[in-house]
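Teaching assistant here, posting this on the class forum so everyone can see the example we discussed in section. The complex has two components, and the goal was to see what a joint structure prediction looks like when all of them are supplied at once.
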Amino acid sequence: MSSVWMSVTKIASKVQAGELKATELVEQSLAMIAEKDEYRAIIATTSERARSRATEIDAKVANGETVGVLAGVPFIAKDNFLVFGAETTAASNILKGFDAPYQSTAVERLEAAGAICVAKANLDAFAHGSSTENSDFMVTKNPVDPTRVPGGSSGGSAAAVVLDLAPFALGTDTGGSIRLPASFCGAVGYKPTYGLVSRSGVVAMASSTDVIGPLTRTVEDAAVVMSVMAGKDRLDSTTIDSTPAEFLELTGELKGKKVGVIKEYMSEGLDAGVRARIEAAIAKMEEAGALVSEISLPSLPLALAAYYIICPAEVSSNLSRYDGQRYGYTYTEAENLSESFSKSRSIGFGKEAKRRIMIGTYVLSSGYYDAYYKKAQTVRTKLIQEFQGAFEQFDFLVGPVAPTPAFKIGENTADPLQMYLTDIMTVAVSLAGIPAVSIPAGLSDGLPVGLQIMAAQRKDKELLSVAQATGELLV
Amino acid sequence: MRDDYTATIGIECHVQLKTVTKLFSAVGNDAREAPPNTLVSHIDFGLPGALPVLNKEAVHLAMRAAFALGSEPQKFSKFDRKHYFYPDLPLGYQITQFDEPIILGGSITVDVDGQQKTIGITRAHLEADAGKSTHPAGPGKSDYSLVDLNRAGTPLLEIVSEPDMHAAAEAKAYAHELYLRMKYADVSEANLYYGNMRFDVNVSVSKNMDLGTRTETKNINSFRAVEKVVEYEINRQIEVLEAGGQIDQETRGWDDAKLKTFSQRSKEDAHDYRYFPDPDLPPVVLNQEYIEEVRAEMPVLPDEFRALFSEIGLDSKTSSDLLAVPSTAARVKRVYEAADASHAKRVAFWLLQGQKATDASIEEGNSTTEPSDTISDEKYLTVSRMVADNKLSSTTAKELLTALRTSTANPETLAGELNLIQESNEDALITIVDRVLADNAKAAEDVKNGEMKAIGFLVGQVMKASQGKANPGLAQQLIKRQLGLS
C-alpha cells in the first residue's frame, strides 16, 4: 500500500536524528484530516495538545535527549479511549461534553514512547455495531468506495489509516471491531490476546472480550505499536505480563507451518468474490511451504448466538454508570429521581445501546439467567476447548473476516439481525480470547477483502510473523 | 399466648475492614473526618474506563476474620455485580460476592445467662460499600439531596448467621461476641458509633415447626438496639398474628427514640439484582501456604482469653470486663505468664478500676480510643510483689499506681519518696504499740478481758500513729502479744 507515511520506526528514527520534526509531522497529519473531512472519519482533533507535545519532542531532540521508539509519530485514537485534549464521547450523545480527567493506559504508554495523538476517530456509539452507522454523530464513509460503510465499530480508525490521516490508529475489538473495518477498508487490523493491553481508560463495552489493538498499514507497524502498549498494568487486573521482545523482530517464516482452514467459515453463504480472494491467499501460503488442510470446529455456528447474549449482558451492566447524575447528558426537567434516571438514559442513549441494554437486562434476569447467560457461557467454554484442540494440530487457523465485502451505507440498518450476522466470523475468536489479525488479501469487484489469521493465546509474535510473511505474498 | 410462639432470629452484620485504602481503589478508607467527596477515585466516581483493582489487604483481613469465626478462608472465591440505580452507587452496581464467598461456614459460642449457645455462621463475603445520601429537610431544602462518595468503595465483610437464635438476649450476645472477635482479630476498628459494624436483624415467629414470615430490620448500630429490635418485632408480630393478621415480608427501620420498628420497603418493591460474575476481576485464589501463614499470625482471640482468665480464677463477669479492652486483656495474660495467677488477678482488678469510667462506651463499642496506660507490665508486677511482701497495703498500692502514671521513677523509689512503705519492722512498730496501749488503757483492758472488738480500735490507733504505714496484720499480732494474749 503506497502511503505518504513511512513506517513508524523510520519516522521515529528520523525524528530522533533531527531529520524530521515532530511539529511538521503533526501539521501534516492535521492537514490530511482537514483534506479528507468528507469521509467523516474524525470526531475531533486534539490539535492544540498535539502541537505542544510535538514542540516538546523537537526541543528534546535539539537538546540531544532520547525521545522514544515512536517519537513524533502522529496517531488517531478511537473516541472510546480517554485522551486529554478533546472530549471523550464514544460517539454517544450521553457522553457529549465529557472531558477525560485521566488518560487510558494505552495512550499514556504511547505518549511515553513519543507518539502524539492528533485526533479522535468515529465509531459505532459505545462500539456497538459493525458499520460505524450507529455513531450518534455521523456516518463514516469507506475510503475505497464512499457509498459503502467502513465496517465497525472501529470504522473511523480503519478509514483514517487508509486515508493516510496518520501512520497508525487505535481501535478496540470486542467481537470483531478491529478486524472487520480493517477488512472492509484494506488495512491491517490486529486483535491481540485478551489481557495483553490494559483496558484502563477505555470506555468498556463487554469487559470479558474487550481488547485494544492497532490499525496500521503494515504488520511491522502493528508489532511496534503493540510492543509499546502491551504489558501488565496495575489499573487493570485482567492484564498479563509481556515484554516488548514478544512482538518485535518478526521471523516471517511460512515454510512447514501447519495452517488449518476453518471449514465452517468457508461454507455456502460466503460471497463468491471473498471466497476467491481467500482461496487465492491460502494457495499462496501453500506455495510458500505452509502445510494447509481443512479443520472443523463444530461449535462455531453457535458462537454468534452465545456472543449476542454474553456481550449485551456485560454491556447492560457496563452502561449502568451513564445515569445522568455526575457527567455527560442529564435530563434537567425531571420531577423526581426515577424520572431523572430514565429520561437521562432514554434520551442520552441511541437505539443500538438501548437494544443491547434490553437484551442484556433480560438475559441476566432471575428466571432467565440459566437459560441464556449460563448456557452461553457453556458454549463459550466449548469454543475455547475446540480452539485449544485445533491448535494442538495447527500453528494457525485461517478464514475470511466477514462473509461479504463492505456493504452499502443504509443496507443493513433496518435489520439489526442482518447487521449482527456481519460478525459471524469474528466473534468466536473474541469469546476464546485468542489473537487474530486481518490482512489485506486483494480486491473483489474493487472492494477490499481481509484474510483472517488466528493463533493460540499468547502466540502473538508467531501470528504477526506469519501475517507479515503472508502479507508480502499478497501484495 | 406468647408462650405458644417460637421466635427465630438471624443476623447479617456488615463489618468495615480497617484497610488503609478502599476495596478497589487507591484512595484513603478513613472517611470519618474527611470533607465530603474528597476521598474519591475514578472508580468510586464511576468514570468511563475505570476498573476495580482488588485490595490485597482486604482479602488478608477477610482471611483473619475467617479464622476468628471458627472457619477457614475459601481457596476459591469470586466477585459479582449486583445491579440497582441510586445516586450513591455511581457504577450502577455493587461489587460483592454472590455464590462463591470468601468464607463459608463457621460458628461462634456465646454465654447467655450462664448457658452456652452455639450460633452457626452461614457465610461471609467481601463487598464494596455505597456512598452516603442525605436528604435535607426543611423550607427550601426538600428539592435536593446530597451525595458523599467518601464511603463508596469502603471494604465491608458481610457476615451472615444461621437462623439459630430464638431470644433477644441471644441476639444481643451474638452481636457483642461478633464485635469482640472482629476487634481481637484486628480486622476492623469495630467502632459502632462510626458505623464500623451495622446489623440487619431478621425476625420471624411461628406456632409450629414451620418458619413464619420474616421481617428484616436494617442498619442497627448498637447491641442494645439489636436486643430491643428483636423484642419489639417478636411482640409486634405476635400481636398481628393474634389479631388475625399476617406478617408481610418487608424491610423495616428502627426508630431509636421511639424504640419502634417501622415499615420501609415491602417485598413487592424487591429488586431483581441481575447478579453475574464481574468480568473486570479475576477470581481470588488462595494457596494453602498463604492460608497457613495467616493462620499462624492470628492473635489470641476472646475464647482463648476466657479460658485463661478462668484458669487465673477470675469470674465470668470480671473476665468479660477485661475482654472489653483488648490491651487490658493482653496485659493480664502477660502478667500471668511472667508471674503467676495471684499477681495476674491483682493486676486485673487494678486495671478494671482504671477503666471503669469508660466502661459504658466500651461496652457499647463506641469508644474511639482505648484508655492509655503508661505503666509498664514490670512496674505493675513490682507493685503487686510489694503488696504480696506486705510492703504496701491495698490503699497505698493504689496511691503508688496513681503516682506512677505521672512519674518515670521505679515503684520502690517512688514508694519510698512518697512514704508509702508499710511498717513491717517489729522493733519499730512495738514502740508505737506500747505507746498506744499506754494512751488507751481502757481499751487495752477491754481486749484483755476478751472484748475482741476493741482490738480494731487499737489497730486503728496504731495506723494513725504510724501515719498509715503500719502493717495492720502485724500491728494486731503485736497488740495481742504485748497484752499477753498470744
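For the discussion questions: The interface with chain B takes residues 82, 88, 90, 95, 98, 100-102, 104, 199-204, 206-208, 234-238, 313-314, 316-317, 319-323, 325-327, 337, 341, 361, 364-366, 369, 373 of chain A (CB under 8 Å). Chain A has a mean pLDDT of 97. Think about how each of these relates to the inputs above.
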